[in-house]
């Protein structure tokens, strides 16, 4: 027995030497990684700066005393997230929900798996059946093959094909016109998505946007790291209605005619490149999760590793980026004035005691308007205020860390907004001015932009790569 054991040990040792490492400690390499600039983003090189009011606190807020802090390098969107970009998120959620309902109805009607794309000419609801449905007969009740019908698609099914499991079928195009509906089960599903006739007018058939919900999970890493409890206790589930609140154009202003903005701002092509508004802090967070999911889905199909998550910027990151490398500046362009040497306003805000038109804009302007700062970031002051991933506390500057400071109290629903907007006076455009709004509130003057952590040295990045 002892001799046999020795032979096994020798054979194992010889096998380990066959790996090409010649018995040396070479480490285990991870996936091949090269930093890539995400499409539409710019690299903000990390560094230290003096955060807070560098001049007089004319409003007497006393909530931003100066403090030297350091932030790591990160990518940031060059512009605020636009209506067009946010609409991509909304449409993806809408299509996911429709495809799941069609697949569930196909299962209920007795269909098998999807037929590899199906097509819509002379097809049926079976064209939208779950991919892999024929390979999975484990029905545990509640929806299609054990799926809970109250779950949104990304909770239960992968958006990409997995032959060992069911996944949504994205091959056939969704038929939106009633004349194109292929069969009665398809009609039943679509009738659930649209509002009933009594809630529509002017001959339009409107969708019930309250059904467009995005569901995702994340872990409260900070709470988990400070405790020794069960991991599952720190996994948090969120479900968020993603469609912007277009009524903010009415509710934010009394005795003001803003119906055209309510009707057209998010949906009309004329406003595609304008910043999205009417989005709460929670909706902005959901967008970040989806953007990560969407990007990683493509990379998985290409056999590439995951990207680092997209997220809202920390308050310190936002101010550091807004300053554009200018120490002690009042505005992203320096200052202390809001006009250039030719008398032109440098941002979209409410100048001259309420003369909205003086800066050539009544409401918002295109996200890529005015001159960018030294980091190539547009409208860090004015146009729309921006959500950041920090809770508001008047004295937070007194106790936060000097390295990547972050104050995000889960119980504090007041979230910081920065930059000022089209309806604000110049004071709120100052890079050091702090303001807040409640996380579940949406406004006609608050939007957001996203960031992504950077790995590596700034000089390693090729800044002119195509979208990945």
Automatic annotation (TrEMBL):
InterPro entries: CTDL_fold (IPR016187), Glid_motil-assoc_lipo_GldK (IPR019866), Sulfatase_Mod_Factor_Kinase (IPR051043), SUMF_dom (IPR005532), SUMF_sf (IPR042095). It holds the Pfam family FGE-sulfatase. Residues 109-157 are annotated as: Disordered. Keywords: Lipoprotein. Residues 40-93, 245-451 form the Sulfatase-modifying factor enzyme-like domain. The keyword Ubl conjugation does not apply. The keyword Zinc-finger does not apply. Residues 109-122 have a biased composition (Gly residues). This is Gliding motility-associated lipoprotein GldK. The lineage of its organism: Bacteria, Pseudomonadati, Bacteroidota, Flavobacteriia, Flavobacteriales.
């Amino acid at each position: 027995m002892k001799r046999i054991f020795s032979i096994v040990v020798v054979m194992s040792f010889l096998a380990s030497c066959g790996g090409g490492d010649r018995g040396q400690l070479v480490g285990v390499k991870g996936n091949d990684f090269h930093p890539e600039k995400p499409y539409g983003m710019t690299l903000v090189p990390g560094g230290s700066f003096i955060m807070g009011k560098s001049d007089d606190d004319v409003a007497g807020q006393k909530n931003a005393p100066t403090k030297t802090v350091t932030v790591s390098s990160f990518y940031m969107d060059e512009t605020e997230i636009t209506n067009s970009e946010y609409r991509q998120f909304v449409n993806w959620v809408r299509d996911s929900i429709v495809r799941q309902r069609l697949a569930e109805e196909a299962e209920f009607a007795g269909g098998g798996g999807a037929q590899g794309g199906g097509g819509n000419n002379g097809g049926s609801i079976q064209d939208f059946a779950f991919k892999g449905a024929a390979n999975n007969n484990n029905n545990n009740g509640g929806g299609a093959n054990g799926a809970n019908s109250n779950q949104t698609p990304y909770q239960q099914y992968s958006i990409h094909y997995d032959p060992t499991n069911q996944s949504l079928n994205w091959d056939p195009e969704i038929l939106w016109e009633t004349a194109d509906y292929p069969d009665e089960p398809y009609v039943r599903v679509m009738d659930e998505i649209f509002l009933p006739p009594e809630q529509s007018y002017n001959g339009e058939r409107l969708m019930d946007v309250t059904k467009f919900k995005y569901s995702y999970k994340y872990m409260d890493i900070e709470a988990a790291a400070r405790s020794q409890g069960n991991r599952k206790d720190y996994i948090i589930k969120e479900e968020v209605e993603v469609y912007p609140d277009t009524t903010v154009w009415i509710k934010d202003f009394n005795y003001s005619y803003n119906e055209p903005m309510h009707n057209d701002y998010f949906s009309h092509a004329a406003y595609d490149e304008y910043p999205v508004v009417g989005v709460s802090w929670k909706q902005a967070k959901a967008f970040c999760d989806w953007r990560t999911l969407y990007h990683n889905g493509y990379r998985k199909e290409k056999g590439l590793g995951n990207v680092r998550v997209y997220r809202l910027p920390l308050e310190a990151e936002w101010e550091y980026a807004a300053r554009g490398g200018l120490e002690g500046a009042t505005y992203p362009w320096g200052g202390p004035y809001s006009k250039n040497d030719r008398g032109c306003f440098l941002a979209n805000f409410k100048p001259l005691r309420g003369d909205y038109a003086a800066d050539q804009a009544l409401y918002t302007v295109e996200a890529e308007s005015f001159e960018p700062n030294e980091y190539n970031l547009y409208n860090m002051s004015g146009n729309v205020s921006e959500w950041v991933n920090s809770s508001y506390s008047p004295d937070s500057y007194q106790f936060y860390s000097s390295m990547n400071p972050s104050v995000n109290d889960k119980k504090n629903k007041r979230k910081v907004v920065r930059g000022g907007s089209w309806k604000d006076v110049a004071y709120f455009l100052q890079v050091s001015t702090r303001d807040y709004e409640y996380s579940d509130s949406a406004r006609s003057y608050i939007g957001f932009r996203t960031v992504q952590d950077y790995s590596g040295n700034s000089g390693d990045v090729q800044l002119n790569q195509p979208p990945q």
